[in-house]
Specification:
Number of helices: 0
Distance between the termini: 45 Å
CATH topology: Methylamine Dehydrogenase, Chain H
Shape: globular
Oligomer: single chain
Number of strands: 12
C-alpha cells in the first residue's frame, strides 16, 4: 500500500533557524489539524491544508497539543512551563504552570479533562470543576 501526500506546509524560519514542530493533533471531527510550531499554535483545515489560525500564547516552544474528545477545548503545553487550555475558537480559557517544562498534554476521551505532565509534577484540568488539581 502506498501513501499519498495530500498537503504539507513548511513553517517559516525565525531568525535564520528552523522552527521546531514537536506535536500535532486532529480535532475529534477530523476537520482541523493543530500543530505546535515554535511558540505558536497553527490550526489548519485538514482537507485543504489552508492555515486557519496562528495562535500566540506561549513564550517558548510548544511541546505537546491535544484536543478534548467533545471538540470544545484543546490544550497546549510548552517549554515555558505553562499549559493553556483554549476553546475551539482559539481563545484562552485557563493558563497554569508546572515546575518545569511541560512534556505531554493528553485529553481523557470520556470526561474531556486534560492531564498534563512535567518531569517532576503533573496536573489535571476539567471544564466541569473549573480548576486545576496538581
Amino acid at each position: 500500500m502506498k501513501g499519498k501526500v495530500v498537503w504539507e506546509d513548511k513553517v517559516p524560519e525565525k531568525d535564520g533557524a528552523s522552527v521546531p514542530i514537536y506535536s500535532v493533533a486532529f480535532s475529534p471531527e477530523g476537520d482541523r489539524v493543530l500543530a505546535g510550531a515554535g511558540a505558536r499554535l497553527l490550526m489548519y483545515d485538514a482537507a485543504s491544508g489552508d492555515l486557519l489560525q496562528s495562535i500566540k500564547g506561549h513564550k517558548d516552544t510548544v511541546n505537546s497539543v491535544s484536543w478534548a474528545g467533545n471538540g470544545k477545548h484543546f490544550a497546549s503545553g510548552g517549554a515555558d512551563k505553562t499549559v493553556i487550555v483554549w476553546n475551539s475558537k482559539g481563545e484562552g480559557v485557563v493558563k497554569y504552570t508546572h515546575a518545569e517544562s511541560v512534556q505531554c498534554v493528553v485529553a481523557n476521551p470520556v470526561t474531556h479533562a486534560f492531564a498534563t505532565i512535567a518531569r517532576t509534577d503533573f496536573g489535571f484540568w476539567s471544564a466541569e470543576a473549573k480548576n486545576v488539581s496538581k
